[in-house]
């Protein structure tokens, strides 16, 4: 135990999600905004096309976030930080970040 009263325990194993390296890429016809843990349509209902640089063909439509959408996303992120993320131990945060990075 350290002078701060905190001891590190490396005896437990972390479990990870499968690596996505072999996953087949599927492009959806439309992508919404991900706010507050769910996919939502943009407030103004606008989308923009994504174009293949090699064929110049339309690949998909992506939600065009307005300032209102950004405000909603920032408010949701603040609530998630205050209520959940800031209370997680560093070890748990590391597991989530590692999963996202994979």
Secondary structure topology:
Layout: E1 30-31, E2 33-35, E3 38-40, E4 47-51, E5 58-63, H1 67-83, H2 90-101
Parallel strand pairs: 1-5
Antiparallel strand pairs: 2-3, 4-5
Would you summarize the structure shown here?
The chain is built from two helices and five strands, in the order E-E-E-E-E-H-H. The chain has 102 residues and is α+β, with helices and mostly antiparallel strands. The strands form two sheets. It has a three-stranded mixed sheet with strand order 1-5-4, with no helix packed on it. It has a two-stranded antiparallel sheet with strand order 2-3.
Strand order of the largest sheet: 1-5-4
Poorly predicted parts: none
Strand content: 15-25%
Number of strands: 5
Tally of structural domains: 1
Element order: H for helix, E for strand: EEEEEHH
Distance between the termini: 33 Å
């Amino acid at each position: 135990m350290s002078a701060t009263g905190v001891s590190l325990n490396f005896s437990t194993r972390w479990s990870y999600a499968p690596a996505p390296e072999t996953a087949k890429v599927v492009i959806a016809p439309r992508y919404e905004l991900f706010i507050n843990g769910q996919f939502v349509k943009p407030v103004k209902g606008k989308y923009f096309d994504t174009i293949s640089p090699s064929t110049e063909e339309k690949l998909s439509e992506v939600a065009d976030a307005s300032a209102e959408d950004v405000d909603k996303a920032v408010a949701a992120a603040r609530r998630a930080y205050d209520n959940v993320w800031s209370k997680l131990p560093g070890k748990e945060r590391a597991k989530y970040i590692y999963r996202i990075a994979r």
